[in-house]
Design a protein that fits this description.
Distance between the termini: 38 Å
Number of helices: 14
Strand content: 5-15%
Mean pLDDT: 95
Largest sheet: 4 strands, mixed
Strand order of the largest sheet: 5-2-1-6
Shape: globular
Number of strands: 6
Radius of gyration: 22 Å
Number of domains: 2
Low-confidence stretches: none
Length: 307
């Protein structure tokens, strides 16, 4: 059973009747869905996900004024709903109680973004971690006649302003090139295998983040970076094959060859999008060329490594 499907069926069976029977005056103002933390919100849950904070449950979002009026009462009624549904029971951990239930819309977003709505200026987009945007755009909205919650969500789903996207792509070129094409090899030559493993892992994380950016998709929590990349149209399947092949190999020469293959593929993608016309195979050389495509003069003055 997929957690999102279970949550929507649970809402349709119990949540929607609750709203219509006991909060009819607000039924056109309450939003419902499952968004936030948890593998089920990304659609990646499996049998191993069910040991904690998984099972029937959903979120209800209210405007600030509505939350002041009925938030406490709606939460009390929500807690009376059956704990079991379709043979599944929600197991709540110490940290999982706040994932479902009744929320004020602005406070829900503030909990992840540090603000009650989508960023309005370019620098605010830079200050918020990519995973936070991934969390807020995960899951599914089941019901939102008022549209307040979904309106904020749609602004986030529209992805970064293009200049911010370019800032981040350029910075990932720098960090992935430094860790994978430079520090990994030198660590092997020095027989510093801890540094080599760290450089390899950082390369994988940064290059996958770069691919998410190329696809205009927010990179999720590190545990789901590889799982999520498989469905991306630009280099997704390629990365889903190459990253495990590199990580699982015990041959350092093979690892180096795969790093070179991955970097070459990314550079071709940059060139195809018009972000670079440089033929260098070194990603660190590509970073400043990409960075120069930024339109905003102040952003263009930023250090290319920062993003």
């Amino acid at each position: 059973m997929n957690g999102l499907t279970l949550a929507e069926r649970y809402f349709t069976t119990f949540g929607l009747p609750l709203i219509r029977d006991k909060f009819s005056d607000y039924q056109e103002r309450i939003a419902a869905g499952l968004v936030g933390l948890g593998s089920e919100c990304l659609g990646f849950d499996d049998e191993f996900s069910r040991d904690h904070d998984w099972g029937p449950g959903f979120c209800l979002w209210l405007t600030r004024s509505d939350h002041e009026r009925i938030g406490r009462l709606l939460q009390e009624e929500y807690q009376k709903l059956p704990q079991s549904f379709d043979g599944f029971e929600r197991k709540v951990s110490e940290w999982g109680e706040s994932r479902i239930g009744v929320f004020e819309t602005g406070e829900f977003y503030r909990g992840f973004l540090g603000r009650p709505d989508a960023p309005e200026i370019l620098y605010d987009w830079l200050r918020i971690p990519e995973n936070s945007f991934s969390i807020c755009t995960s899951g599914r909205v089941f019901y939102d006649p008022l549209g307040e919650f979904s309106g904020i969500r749609q602004k986030l789903l529209n992805f970064y302003p293009n200049d911010i996207r370019i800032v981040k792509i350029a910075a990932r070129c720098m960090s992935a090139g430094q860790s994978g094409q430079y520090n990994f090899l030198r660590s092997i030559w020095r027989r510093d295998y801890f540094a080599a493993q760290y450089a390899e892992t950082k390369f994988c994380a940064d290059i996958m983040s770069l691919v998410y950016l190329l696809n205009r998709s927010y990179a999720p929590y590190y545990k789901w970076l590889l799982r999520g990349i498989a469905g991306l149209p630009t280099l997704g399947k390629f990365m889903f094959e190459k990253i495990p092949a590199m990580v699982e190999s015990n041959d350092y020469d093979q690892k180096r060859e795969i790093i070179d293959e991955i970097c070459a593929a990314v550079i071709r993608a940059l060139q195809q999008e018009g972000l670079s016309d440089l033929n260098s195979r070194f990603l660190v050389d590509q970073g400043p060329v990409v960075h120069d495509k930024i339109v905003d003069a102040n952003l263009r003055k930023m250090d290319v490594w920062i993003g």
